[in-house]
């Protein structure tokens, strides 16, 4: 990891992941092994492979939500490099706050917190004034066609599509240098899909590195720079 | 044990005056030495409560056993004792304690503040300023000022040791929150020498300022709680308060009905069954001294003073037969 | 990454090393070490008897551990071992720079003085002698924990359990502590009351940047509040890490059992 050029934003190497289910007789499930993988500024890497091949697991590992058994995930965090597999929780929190955005497949939100607050909170955490944060949150929510009447409500009662759009808003409200996207367009209608495609391409345009899983071939074609087949790693192992 | 025998309290003069069958001033010399050590420690650490081995006394707790033990430990045959209860020398408790020491120590007793060298008191500090050669002994029911807030002795001692007195102001805060002012009118907590928070015993807060830099030695004895503490002469004694709610003492619209004093603590005395009442000095000696000096009150009839245009608080002598009022029933 | 500067870590607020506490032959907790950073919320989970409360008592200075050290970054003199500093200093720390929210409000409140006095006491303890100021601070803090100002002079026992916990929180936060310990702050409350209290705590911790150690058996509480998690069993820390990592990808058999035991709603 000594010869990364200036465009490298994230580099995974020797990354291996398996699950051991201790309470089910210690079954071991291998997912991937020795993954080697780079994401650069301004590109969107599409994780490819059939369903169940470990795309989501890899993406979650890259967010440090899952814990790989071996390997490193180097992330360019401001001026420094942080290995998410070796970093302390405190560092990972900071990397997630400033550098690494993640849109999960399902909205996992804090119950009882209003949508607008959910979306603006991370900005306040970064030091924006409440008013500025609110403005940006309103902009992104409007762009994703969340009716203004819903802004003051917690999203737990929203429809699946609305929840997914809130989820996207929570991440895209910030200009993360690295974005991890797990099926962000899965349950969206055409108009909203177009919006998300536009958001992703804008992020690319400002130099963000994006790693994503997209089922929809149309979306893949619209945003993808190249693809990385997760099954390669398993076959190689 | 030689020092016990040589002690002045064992002089022949005292032996002859005191009743036989008792040691001088009732307590044995060992006990007195123990108490004196506690007193010395108390004097050395002003306001600090010193535990002592309180003895059984021939009267129940609550009747001044702590004060009596302190008095017994400091009194000598040449002392003159005054005992007051609620400011008066003629109440049951005061009379009994006075006769107790007259009998067991053979000391002279007095009702006059200026004549006394040792004054044992409950509920009051005499109005007449005390001097360097006097000792004021307080009877204390509950010596621990933090007790209402913290029931554990181990914890209150720690709070004293570490000067954690913030909680003391909580009770004053509660008063202001509820009544708009600090309503605590007696046993008003003080800080001694800038260090220990101390209970002044149940004296009215009117008397608190007298404790500050008092020339006389002040000793406090709590018999049931087995504590002795002290305020040496000329020691700072400050009543706790808030910057925006400073400590104040009680004032009255009336003057003493008997002596016309406007600067003394007044007791309300009911004079008949029809709601008649008047205000008289709680300090009976002070009142008497003033009357002897020719001061006269309005006899409980403010209208009288107004009618005759007597300046409130100091009616001319001889105009009113004030002495006929039942001034003695002040208990 | 040729000459990339190293990631700069702030100084930890609390440094726990090799902490062991024994109750006679019985182990309370064994060889626990961790750092807590400013603004960080650490959850300690485990079932009763796992040693989590023992650990909390030791790191919050309420009980001296048999072995190990607990160092706190004091404002004036850097890291100092809690049990090497004078008791006076430790107690001062506990009522100014720290807060402790107890499971039972009776342990954390003065039940015989009003809500306002409960909040004001810590100010009086650090020398505030201005009634008006104390009063307005009390009003301010009762508002911040969403309590009815009209009840400022009421006694704590007249409040509901949830309100008593709010009062406890206000009482602790009035001196703007940097570190707050919470021992099962929401257990014993109705679910809806619990939820509102958690929202409140979450909001306060975020806006005030308070570091927090929360002991609970409720994984929902830590999922919501804590950044980091320590799982305890039989006095040992069996797993620790980022909260979502530990809950979503538990490694230890006991953590897996714990996570799989949550009833779906």
UniProtKB/TrEMBL annotation, chain A:
- Write one Gene Ontology MF term: ATP hydrolysis activity
Q: Which UniProt keywords apply?
A: ATP-binding, Nucleotide-binding
> PROSITE patterns in the record, alphabetically?
ABC_TRANSPORTER_1 (PS00211), ABC_TRANSPORTER_2 (PS50893)
Q: What positions does the domain ABC transporter occupy?
A: 10-236
Gene3D superfamilies referenced in this protein's UniProt entry, alphabetically: P-loop containing nucleotide triphosphate hydrolases (3.40.50.300)
Q: Has the keyword ATP-binding been applied to this entry?
A: yes
Q: Which Pfam families match?
A: ABC_tran
In terms of NCBIfam families, this protein maps to: CP_lyasePhnL
Similarity annotation: Belongs to the ABC transporter superfamily.
**Protein's recorded name:** Alpha-D-ribose 1-methylphosphonate 5-triphosphate synthase subunit PhnL
Automatic annotation (TrEMBL), chain B:
Residue ranges, compositional bias (Low complexity)? 311-320
A single MF term (Gene Ontology)? metal ion binding
Superkingdom to which the source organism belongs: Bacteria
User: Which family, according to the similarity comment?
Assistant: Belongs to the PhnJ family.
What is the scientific name of the source organism?
Answer: Thalassobaculum litoreum DSM 18839
Span list, region Disordered: 292-331
Write down a Pfam family by its short name.
PhnJ
In the record, biological process GO terms are: organic phosphonate catabolic process
State what this protein does.
Catalyzes the breakage of the C-P bond in alpha-D-ribose 1-methylphosphonate 5-phosphate (PRPn) forming alpha-D-ribose.
Q: Which UniProt keywords apply?
A: 4Fe-4S, Iron, Iron-sulfur, Lyase, Metal-binding, S-adenosyl-L-methionine
Q: What is its EC number?
A: 4.7.1.1
What catalytic activity does the UniProt entry give for this protein?
A: alpha-D-ribose 1-methylphosphonate 5-phosphate + AH2 + S-adenosyl-L-methionine = alpha-D-ribose 1,2-cyclic phosphate 5-phosphate + methane + 5'-deoxyadenosine + L-methionine + A + H(+)
Q: Give the protein name, as stated in the record.
A: Alpha-D-ribose 1-methylphosphonate 5-phosphate C-P lyase
From TrEMBL, chain C:
The family database entries (Pfam families) matched by this protein are listed as:
ABC_tran
* One GO biological process term: organic phosphonate catabolic process
ABC transporter domain spans which residues? 14-259
Q: Which SMART domains match?
A: AAA
Q: What InterPro entries is this protein classified in?
A: AAA+_ATPase, ABC_transporter-like_ATP-bd, ABC_transporter-like_CS, P-loop_NTPase, PhnK
In the record, what terms sit under GO molecular function? ATP binding; ATP hydrolysis activity
Keyword annotations of the record:
ATP-binding, Nucleotide-binding
Q: Output the Gene3D superfamilies linked to this UniProt entry.
A: P-loop containing nucleotide triphosphate hydrolases
Source domain of life is Bacteria
Entry-linked NCBIfam families: CP_lyasePhnK
Q: What is this protein called?
A: Putative phosphonate transport system ATP-binding protein
């Amino acid at each position: 990891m000594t010869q990364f050029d200036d465009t490298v934003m994230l580099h995974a190497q020797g990354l291996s992941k398996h699950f051991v289910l201790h309470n089910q007789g210690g079954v071991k499930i291998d997912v991937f092994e020795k993954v080697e993988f780079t994401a650069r500024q301004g590109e969107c890497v599409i994780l490819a492979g059939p369903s169940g091949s470990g795309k989501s697991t890899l993406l979650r590992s890259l967010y440090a939500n899952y814990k790989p058994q071996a390997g490193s995930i180097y992330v360019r965090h401001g001026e420094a490099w942080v290995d998410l597999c070796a970093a302390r929780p405190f560092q990972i929190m900071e990397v997630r706050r400033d550098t690494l955005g993640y849109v999960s497949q399902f909205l996992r939100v804090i119950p009882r917190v209003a949508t607008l607050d959910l979306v603006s909170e991370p900005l306040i955490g970064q030091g924006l004034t409440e008013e500025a944060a609110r403005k940006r949150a309103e902009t992104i929510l409007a762009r994703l066609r969340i009716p203004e009447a819903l802004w003051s409500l917690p999203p737990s009662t929203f429809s699946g599509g609305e929840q997914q759009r809130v989820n996207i808003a929570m991440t895209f409200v910030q200009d993360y240098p690295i974005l991890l996207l797990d099926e962000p367009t899965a349950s969206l209608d055409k108009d909203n899909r177009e919006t998300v495609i536009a958001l992703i391409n804008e992020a690319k345009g400002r130099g963000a590195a994006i790693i994503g899983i997209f089922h929809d071939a149309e979306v893949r074609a619209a945003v993808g720079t190249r693809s990385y087949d997760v099954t390669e790693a398993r076959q190689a192992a | 044990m030689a020092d016990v025998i040589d002690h002045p309290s064992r002089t022949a003069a005292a032996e002859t005056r005191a009743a036989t069958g008792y040691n001088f001033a009732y307590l044995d010399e060992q006990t007195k030495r123990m108490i004196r050590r506690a007193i010395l420690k108390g004097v050395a650490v002003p306001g600090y409560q010193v535990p002592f081995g309180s003895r059984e006394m021939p009267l129940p707790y609550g009747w001044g056993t702590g004060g009596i033990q302190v008095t017994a430990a400091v009194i000598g045959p040449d002392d003159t004792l005054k005992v007051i209860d609620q400011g008066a020398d003629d109440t049951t408790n005061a009379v009994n304690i006075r006769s107790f020491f007259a009998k067991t120590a053979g000391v002279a007793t007095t009702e006059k503040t200026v004549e006394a060298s040792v004054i044992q008191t409950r509920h009051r500090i005499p109005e007449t300023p005390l001097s360097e050669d006097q000792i004021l002994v307080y009877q204390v029911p509950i010596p621990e000022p933090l007790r209402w807030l913290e029931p554990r002795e181990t914890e209150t001692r720690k709070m004293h040791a570490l000067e954690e007195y913030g909680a003391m102001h909580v009770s004053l805060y509660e008063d202001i929150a509820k009544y708009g002012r600090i309503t605590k009118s007696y046993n008003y907590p003080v800080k001694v020498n800038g260090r220990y928070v101390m209970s002044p015993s149940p004296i009215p807060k009117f008397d608190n300022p007298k404790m500050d830099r008092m020339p006389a030695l002040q000793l406090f004895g709590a018999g049931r709680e087995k504590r002795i503490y002290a305020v040496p002469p000329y020691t700072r004694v400050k009543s706790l308060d808030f910057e925006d709610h400073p400590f104040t003492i009680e004032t009255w619209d009336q003057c003493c009905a008997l002596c016309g004093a406007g600067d003394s603590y007044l007791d309300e005395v009911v004079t008949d069954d029809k709601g008649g009442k008047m205000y008289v000095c709680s300090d009976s000696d002070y009142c008497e001294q003033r009357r002897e000096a020719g001061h006269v009150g309005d006899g409980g009839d403010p209208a009288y003073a107004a009618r005759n245009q007597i300046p409130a608080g100091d009616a001319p002598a001889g105009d009113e037969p004030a002495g006929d009022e039942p001034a003695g029933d002040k208990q | 990454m040729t000459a990339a500067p190293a990631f700069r870590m702030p100084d930890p607020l609390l440094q726990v090393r090799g902490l062991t506490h024994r109750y006679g032959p019985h182990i309370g907790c064994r060889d626990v070490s961790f750092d807590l950073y400013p603004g960080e919320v650490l959850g300690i989970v485990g079932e009763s008897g796992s040693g989590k409360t023992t650990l909390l008592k030791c790191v919050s200075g309420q009980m001296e551990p048999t072995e190990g050290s607990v160092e706190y970054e004091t404002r004036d003199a850097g890291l100092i071992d809690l049990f090497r500093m004078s008791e006076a200093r430790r107690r001062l720390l506990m009522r100014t720079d720290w807060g402790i929210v107890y499971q039972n409000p009776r342990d954390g409140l003065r039940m015989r003085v009003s809500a306002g006095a409960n909040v004001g006491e810590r100010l009086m303890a650090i020398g505030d002698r201005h009634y008006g100021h104390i009063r307005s601070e009390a009003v301010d803090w009762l508002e911040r924990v969403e309590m009815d100002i009209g009840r400022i002079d009421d006694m704590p026992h007249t409040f509901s359990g949830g309100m008593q916990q709010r009062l406890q929180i206000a009482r602790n936060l009035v001196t703007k502590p940097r570190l707050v310990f919470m021992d099962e702050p929401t257990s014993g409350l109705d679910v809806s009351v619990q939820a509102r209290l958690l929202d409140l705590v979450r909001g306060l911790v975020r806006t005030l940047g308070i570091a927090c150690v929360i002991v609970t058996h409720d994984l929902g509480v830590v999922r919501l509040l804590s950044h980091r998690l320590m799982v305890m069993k039989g006095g040992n820390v069996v797993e620790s890490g980022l909260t979502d990592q530990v809950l979503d990808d538990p490694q230890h058999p006991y953590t897996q059992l714990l996570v799989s035991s949550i009833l779906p709603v």
